[in-house]
Amino acid sequence: MVMNKSSDLSLDRIFSALADSTRRAILMKLTNGDEGVMDLAAPFDMSQPAISRHIKVLENAGLVTRHRQGTHRMCRLAPDALDEIEPWLNMIADRYRNKYDRLDTVLAAMTPTKQGDE
Amino acid sequence: MVMNKSSDLSLDRIFSALADSTRRAILMKLTNGDEGVMDLAAPFDMSQPAISRHIKVLENAGLVTRHRQGTHRMCRLAPDALDEIEPWLNMIADRYRNKYDRLDTVLAAMTPTKQGDE
DNA sequence: CCACTATATAACAATATGGTTATGAATAAG
DNA sequence: CTTATTCATAACCATATTGTTATATAGTGG
Fold this sequence. Notes:
The structure is a homodimer.
Chain A: H1 9-18, H2 21-30, H3 37-41, H4 48-60, E1 64-69, E2 72-77, H5 80-109
Antiparallel strand pairs in A: 1-2
Helix pairs in contact in A: 1-4
The structure holds a DNA duplex.
């Protein structure tokens, strides 16, 4: 069974977008409400084009949407994308717990007279 | 207020580690129990050194621990690191909800005769 | 049309990432 | 000691990421 590399592009993009503290800070800021690119850029010691691209990364990951408002391009949190990663986290957690539950069962079923490994 | 880039190295590493489908698949596999590097590598169409480095990334992120077992280096899921990202996700979600709750309150408080922004 | 503001894009450089092959080191076993 | 197995590391290459500066584009207002 050979696994394919492009299994989940969406998760790739979301996790990758979150793997940068500047972008996480931008998301945090957006929890206070929509903001234009300039306002978003202000707190950071970084050029405007750099922030522009960070926002594009967030947009491509589906974490942020934008709409024009006069001369501004307002950024808005799109928390749906964040919801995408929770099922994955839960799957891991569930499988993990399940595995150890099963192990517990096995251990419980073993009489103390015998010992297994793992 | 200038934000510093190295705010949370730990989250950087965890999200970054999760941003690769091969590494996510390795974590999935490990929910079935500990495995050696060779066994982990088997399903993937990739060289052993490549897998070795993926595992190291997971280890550096705190998602996997290892211990020798004879000639094997057994990999074990360390789900604690995954727990680290949940508070962050919740913070975003909470602030987001809070924001809109506050907005709702503001909107509710406004008599239809007057309008304010945000 | 002109000028101003907000933002995007292009071109570039430095560094990071992810893969490969070749090889080294540690343990187990004959 | 020798050999086989498991795994790590080194050297290398291609591509991606992230920042910079310079410039282009799009609305807004006079």
